[in-house]
Backbone:
């Protein structure tokens, strides 16, 4: 009887940890954004760091999701999801993500901006505005 109770307590503890991790990694965006050249619509996302240096974006309302490769990046805080966007006049490009339960932040490809934004002769240099969103 004691081994069964022990197994049940371990299972409950593992489920509790999984649920608390899930809520910490949920974040929302009021605007569509580009990740490694792919556009994701505005909405609520569950963002998960995968062990093979990738990041998965799961749309919580059933919309399209995405798995992208990322590079290691710096962390500025612990415990909460943080997304860093580069805002251009009509686009948001995801530049970095800091996810709980990971050792490093994740940095995304931002040079795809030249394919998304048409730079005309009057624009010599496009400087993005940095926008940060914290998880719920």
Residues:
């Amino acid at each position: 009887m004691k081994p069964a109770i022990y197994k049940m307590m371990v299972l409950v503890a593992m489920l509790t940890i999984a649920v608390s991790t899930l809520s910490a990694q949920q974040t929302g965006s009021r605007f569509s954004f580009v990740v490694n050249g792919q556009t994701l619509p505005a909405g609520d996302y569950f963002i998960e760091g995968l062990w093979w240096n990738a990041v998965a974006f799961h749309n919580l309302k059933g919309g399209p999701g995405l798995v992208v490769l990322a590079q290691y990046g710096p962390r500025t805080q612990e415990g909460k999801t943080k997304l860093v966007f580069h805002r251009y006049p009509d686009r948001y490009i995801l530049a970095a993500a800091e996810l709980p339960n990971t050792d490093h932040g994740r940095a995304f490809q931002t040079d795809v901006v030249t394919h998304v934004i048409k730079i005309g002769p009057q624009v010599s240099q496009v400087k993005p505005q940095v926008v940060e969103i914290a998880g719920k």
The radius of gyration is 18 Å.
